[in-house]
Write a structure and sequence with these properties.
The structure is a single chain. This protein is an alpha+beta fold. The chain has 2 domains: 108 residues; 129 residues, Cupredoxins -  blue copper proteins (Immunoglobulin-like, Sandwich). The strands form 2 sheets. A 5-stranded mixed beta sheet has the order 3-2-1-5-8. A 5-stranded mixed beta sheet has the order 4-10-9-6-7, with helices on one face. A hairpin with a 4-residue loop joins strand 6 and strand 7. The longest helix is centred in the middle third of the chain and has 34 residues. It is elongated and about 95 Å long.
Length: 255
């Protein structure tokens, strides 16, 4: 029994020291490129899955070993546990707990660090207003430019200031690992880093009525030059539309 205890303890210690070391090595390897919040989220999630896998394997193998090692050979066998001193009993209870809880605290600390990154908006972020309606998203770039497709430039952080015009919605960008409630009478925000040219989607993950499943929109990441050209064109079109509306209104007043 003592030999089994020593082997299990050595295995637990090896795992507990190897996983954080592996995590540190992966982070150092990834430091050569900019780690966006979404990439940090993926790395942390991998670590959580590995942690759960290792814990499951350790306890699973220990349970199987003891099941076959100490099973009764015949119906009259009676099991008898080893006699432990008070110190040994306390050590057997606290040492494994301390090892696994320490790893959980490590992962929790990484999670809080990532949460802090998600809540601190970079100074150079492009700000866009996002409005939730039943059942579509609307994006206001200012200067009268309002669209139902979110267009953003590659390589520049984007912060969305959000509110709802009717009921509670939930703004979710699966690719960028961001999700936030959108409420009437309150402004919430999320930010993300569009690091590659692509097309993805935004959807609502809070049931908001009969057409909730249809409440999704397109998110396009384009080059900075194309974004600047598009925004200038859209701004001019919005100004022309406003001038036309103003002229019609004036004519109606005169008439």
């Amino acid at each position: 029994m003592r030999l089994l205890g020593r082997r299990l303890l050595m295995l637990v210690l090896a795992v507990a020291t190897a996983v954080p070391a592996w995590a540190s090595e992966e982070a150092e390897h990834a430091a050569g490129v900019a780690l966006t919040p979404a990439k940090r989220w993926d790395i942390l999630w991998d670590h959580v899955l590995i942690d759960l896998l290792v814990i499951g394997l350790v306890f699973g193998f220990a349970a199987l070993y003891m099941l076959f090692k100490y099973k009764a050979k015949n119906p009259t066998d009676l099991g008898q546990g080893p006699k432990l001193t008070k110190g040994q009993a306390i050590a057997w209870a606290l040492i494994p707990v301390a090892i696994f809880v320490a790893d959980d605290f490590y992962l929790a600390a990484q999670g809080w660090t990532l949460w802090g990154i998600y809540r601190r908006v970079p100074e150079n972020a492009l700000e866009v207003k996002a409005i939730g309606h039943q059942w579509y998203w609307e994006f206001d770039y200012g200067n009268g430019v309002v669209t139902q497709e979110l267009k953003v430039p590659q390589g520049r952080p984007v912060v969305l200031r959000m509110h709802s015009e009717d009921v509670l919605h939930d703004f979710y960008l699966p690719k960028y690992r961001v999700k936030e409630d959108v409420m009437p009478g309150r402004i919430t925000y999320v930010w993300f880093m569009p690091d590659e040219i692509t097309e993805t989607l935004v959807t609502c993950t809070m049931y908001c009525g009969a057409a909730h499943s249809q409440m999704y929109g397109k998110v396009s990441v384009i080059t900075p030059d194309k974004f600047t050209a598009w925004l200038e064109t859209a701004t001019k079109a919005a100004e022309a539309s406003q001038n036309k509306i103003g002229a019609v209104t004036r004519d109606q007043v005169k008439g």
